[in-house]
Structure formats: C-alpha cells, structure tokens
Design a protein that fits this description.
The protein is mostly beta strands and 299 residues long. The chain has helices spanning 16-26, 97-100, and strands at 31-34, 37-39, 45-48, 51-56, 63-68, 72-75, 85-95, 106-112, 133-141, 152-154, 180-185, 188-191, 194-197, 201-202, 210-221, 228-235, 240-244, 248-249, 255-267, 274-281, 286-298.
Length: 299
C-alpha cells in the first residue's frame, strides 16, 4: 500500500501518476475537442485539425491530457486493386515511458491499416493500441486516387466535452414569504358602564414560522360620569391575554389618546389568531376606538 503526498503542497514531491489521477477525476473516459479528420485534397492523405484529447492510460494509472496546436498531415497507403476495399483507422496516440514502457514521450497521429477484401471492408479495430483514441475510419475504395469527405467516418469520442465540469448547483430553496403588515379597527360606540367584549378580528394565516409584532393604540371618549377605564387585548383560542392597559384615569366628557402598547411572540402555520378587546368603563355614552396594527415577519 502506498500513501502519496497530496497534490500541490508547497515543496511537495509526487509522481506524475497523481496528476493523471486528477485528470481521470475530471475525464474518466476518452473525449476530444477538435482533432477532426478531413481530406487533404488531391492524393491519399488526410489532415487532423488542432485539438485536445483526454483518454485513460493503457496501464490504468489515470488519464492523460494531450494537445496539438497545428494542422497535421497523415499519409495513407495506396488504394487496393479495383474490386476490393480497405478500411483504415486514424488514431491519436499519447505515448510515454511510464505509460506503455516504450522510449517515446509524445503525441502522434497514426494509421491502423485494414485488410483488403471485397466490399464492405471491415475496420481493423484490434490494431489500435491500448491508450490510443480512434479519430476516424477511412474507407479506401479499390483503385481510388484520393480520399473524399464521404470516405471518412467520424469516430471521435464525446466531441466537445472537454470543458471542466461545472460545480454542482445547490438545490433551489423556495423564496421566503413576504412580511405581512396590516391593521384592525376595533372601534365601538355607545358603551355603558360595565365590562364587555368587542368583535373578533382575525390575523392572516402564515405559511412558515414567523414572528408577530402587535401595536395597540387609538383613542377613546368619555361620556358623562366616566373618569376611568381599562382594556385588554385577548386571543380567543387558546384563550390568552396579550396586552392589558391597567386603569386609565382621565377627566369625563373628553376625548383622550389611548396609551400605545407593544406585544411580540411567535405565530406558526396552522394556528388561528382571532383577537378581541375587553373594555371595562364607568358612566354612559362612551366610545372606544382602538387600532391593532400587526407586522408578521417570516423567520
């Protein structure tokens, strides 16, 4: 077992094998960019366009990346006699002493020559060495003096798929619901002495756990004989007192601003928030005009 020094450590020392492992992680199978095989014109030659290839190595130590920056001409053997055909394979071969045990360290374009036979000719696939990449099959017709585009079959693997894979895209999360802002009018008139409950007002339902802020304020008017009052903002179910004003003492027969109170807590999906206000007041002919503002902020 061998534990290798991690790649690209400062002053690290590692074999080329580890670079090939990195290339294999990106390109685990053969693929090409460019390297199209085309007729050279007159005569029995073809050209190979500039380009790049990645391919697993013959000795299973990863993948190699090879590049050619110029048009290359590859010579083809003369055509067989009339009445017979031959199929040749043009291939790219990255060679290296630590890949195939040979003496060359280069990239070459070679031809695996097929066997002459009556049409249709068979490809000499066994003649392409391990670690090489077949680029095209050429049908060489008996008695032909040149190779045409129709004689060339493109065998390049995964053409154009040499871009570095993009990082995985994280899953899309649904957008957070907007903040809900609103108010409720809990006004009541002609209140006589005693304690009474006002009408019920519902808060909006929420889709996600949220924070609820309630602001209670407004005004009230005392009729004759009234000089004190108190009020309580309540939740109907489950029953809960949210805000209590305590006793408010003011002169009778006047309009007064109610003290402003705040309450905050949690509101969750599925909960019903029905609010009402209980008023205790003396005298008669009073009116009570509170406002309940609310801000619901998703967590």
């Amino acid at each position: 077992m061998t534990r290798y020094t991690p790649l690209w450590l400062q002053a690290g020392d590692y074999p080329a094998l580890l670079d090939r492992q990195l290339i294999a992680a990106l390109y685990p199978d053969a693929r090409t960019l460019g390297l199209a095989v085309k007729p050279a014109g007159a005569g029995m030659d073809v050209t190979v366009d500039p380009g790049t290839l990645a391919t697993p190595t013959a000795n299973a130590t990863g993948s190699v990346l090879a590049y050619s920056d110029a048009l290359e001409t590859v010579g083809i053997q003369p055509a067989p006699p009339t009445g017979t055909d031959r199929m040749d394979i043009v291939y790219a071969y990255p060679r290296g002493a630590d890949l195939d045990g040979g003496t060359f360290n280069d990239l070459v374009f070679l031809v695996a020559q097929g066997t002459e036979s009556p049409p249709p000719a068979q490809a000499p696939t066994a003649s392409v060495p391990p670690g090489a990449v077949a680029l095209a099959a050429l049908t060489i017709h008996g008695g032909a003096a040149s190779i045409t585009a129709a004689d060339i079959s493109d065998w390049r693997p995964k053409v154009g798929q040499l871009a570095v894979p993009a990082p995985a895209v994280p899953p899309a999360y649904p957008p957070k619901p907007p903040v809900i802002v609103g108010n409720q009018d809990h006004a009541r008139g002609s209140l006589n002495a005693g304690t009474s409950d006002g009408g019920v007002r519902a808060l909006p339902a929420v889709q996600v756990p949220s924070t609820l802020l309630i602001i209670l304020g407004g005004n009230h008017g005392y009729g004759a004989g009234a000089s004190s009052s108190s009020y309580t903002l309540k939740r109907q179910t489950p029953a809960a007192n949210l805000i209590g004003s305590g006793t408010i003492n003011v002169p009778a027969a006047m309009t007064h601003a109610l003290p402003t109170f705040f309450w905050t807590g949690d509101i969750n999906p599925g909960e019903v928030w029905n609010l009402f206000i209980t008023v205790t007041i003396g005298g008669s002919n009073n009116y009570f005009s509170p406002k309940v503002g609310y801000v619901i902020t998703p967590k």
